[in-house]
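User: Structure please.
Assistant: Input sequence and predicted structure:
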Amino acid sequence: MAADSPAPDPAGRRPGPPGRHDRQGVADHRPPPDLPRTLSGLRASGWQPATVADELRRNVSARIAASQPVIEGVLGFEETVVPQLENALMAGHDIILLGERGQAKTRIIRGLVALLDEWLPVVAGSEINDDPYHPTSRFGRLRVAEEGEDTPINWVHRSERYGEKLATPDTSIADLIGEVDPIKVAEGRYLSDELTLHYGLVPRVNRGIFAVNELPDLAERIQVGLLNVLEERDVQIRGHRVRLPLDVVLVATANPEDYTNRGRIITPLKDRFGAQIRTHYPRDVATEVAVVRAEASLPDGVPVTVPGYLEEVVAELSQLARRSPHLNQRSGVSVRLSIANYETLAANARRRALRTREPEAVPRVSDLGALVSSTQGKVEVEALEEGHEAEVIAQLVASAVLAVYRRLAPLGDPGAVLADFGPDTVVHTGDDLPAARYMEVLRDVPGLEPPARSLAGPDAAESPAALAAAVEFLLEGLHLSKRLNKDASGPRALYRTRR
């Protein structure tokens, strides 16, 4: 069975096969009617069991041979993370992903679900996905022994074969492995009866993938409980003489500092992971822009068109923040910063369009001031800069604008523009000004019009909002390159000649 359905989205929702949804749009995972429903029918169909590692290996190999991406929706890892991930999956290894926050670690893990076979047969009623040919739990063994070839079979969709736990200090062995269920004891069963057990998260994803986010946050005594899962592939619950041989691929995530420096993960557990893969942030502006375009959510309403050069400014801001000595680099600068800034930039432009009753919203340089609120919560300034967060962010924004201006501005020689700035020429800008005001600027400074139209692009050159954004960007670039003076007060600014 091919692994061909889409991967889970960032919220953890796992869409089903195309075209099979209920009225609320929720994935409908009812198995096809032609699948066998009894053990005898399963044998007659020729179905053969395979370990989870073998399933992943087979489906990864098929995708590689077909030149298809192994993980959907992950950008910038094609030459770095993905080859290592492919090797680990083909080797059948358990994996730990090391990386700072916002490096798509959880998305990668959830994307592995799409590499499982779409449907898996289990003994009907089993809590731990018992293999009909080789049941593991006492319930499964008894049912197959009693009903034989008539044992009913259920089919589990791959989306149900994934379990995830965010590691927290209060996570217990009972959460992960299991515990005696007092209700079942009260019903008359003996404590020694395996049927009194309430299985934890790991056994319940038997024959599937189990993920632990932020593994070092597990208490050391709980980490010890995972040793058998990784090496011996079994779990032991309380004082019961019960051994559950599980078929689970374990995947975990961790922050490199927690994992390697603070000693918060026990050495035997480190040793049992077959592959350790380092993730990273987008290494260039183009990749960061692509991620932002894919992830940002712009609400319905006044249409918003974000110019390409401002998209690059948003991405450049994050790139500069990751190298800034004024920010704490140990905490990382997530891609979520770029996404939040992009959405805030668009929101500020839409707010202006609503107030000025313009049909289109195009963000401008004057809208960049709104990014302080969306940036402050996602970066940590160094101790010496505490209390100056807004100034640090403003400097990063200015540096980002200047870098993009130098790359993209169509001003081979700014002299033609500067020549139009007489001693009394003053240009006012602001995030509250309608686009029509900037058409007056083009009449007063005609040298700005050709580069502004070129920057706005052929499709948007006749759009007043797009031209207004281009004018502001050129004026800010001329100021930052020390060609014009600027007097600023909040989002409003006044540009004049330096002569």
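The first helix runs from residue 39 to 45.
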